[in-house]
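Q: Can I see a sequence and its folded structure?
A: Here is a first one.
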Amino acid sequence: MKEYAGRCFEDFTAGQVIEHPHGRTVTQADNIWFTLLTNNSNPIHFDAHYAAHTEFGRPLVNSAFTIALVTGLSVSDMSQNAVNLGWDEVRLPHPLFEGDTVYARSEVLALRESRSRPQQGVMTFRSSGYTQHGVVVVDFKRTVLVYRRGHLPSATSRPVMQERP
């Protein structure tokens, strides 16, 4: 059985829309750990008493986590074989809360051959993350450098499992 190795530059077309297959429920631990890991001192992410006195009434999920999560949900379909060049036009139109499940979709906006790297192409796409209620919580453009078919880095560096005795 052949393993899925991700899409290459030739596998994308402008206007192509991809609904990413997995959702992810955000936990309180996710929110607190990410907030502490990134040294974000805003109590709206980790102090429930403080957050209860805001217009939201409860902790908000760290927006950098929201961006990272939707990026991650898209990787197997969009950038398994790519290198990030940048994020643009990041918008957070609605807050994300602990306990929400996030889903994602992406649309290919533009493709072009790389002028400096003929073994790769440049792709720009828009990704959106939305909750179990269909509410969009993040929307952004992302540009990546994608390998062309036949130019993927070799997988031969992966160790081979030895047979059991």
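Q: Show me another, different protein.
A: A second, unrelated one:
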Amino acid sequence: MTPTTVVEIGRNALEITLMISAPLFLAALITGLIVSIFQAATQINEATLSFVPKLVAIFITMIVAGPWMITIMTDYMRRLYEAIPSMIG
């Protein structure tokens, strides 16, 4: 296994990680922004108020995007396992 191969595997792993986590991060970001606007409008300064809506939004996003996320992860793992013989020799 060459250093180039190791770097390529690491780069692919980071790309997959970012691609899979992006919907969850976006859901949390958008929910946090909406809750922050609500808190600013009503002047309610409760730190725990943003936790539950973010949790619910992430849960719903995982339900909606979960099959896609699992497909991406299993395809990547399958490609890694299939590439093991070419990496060894």
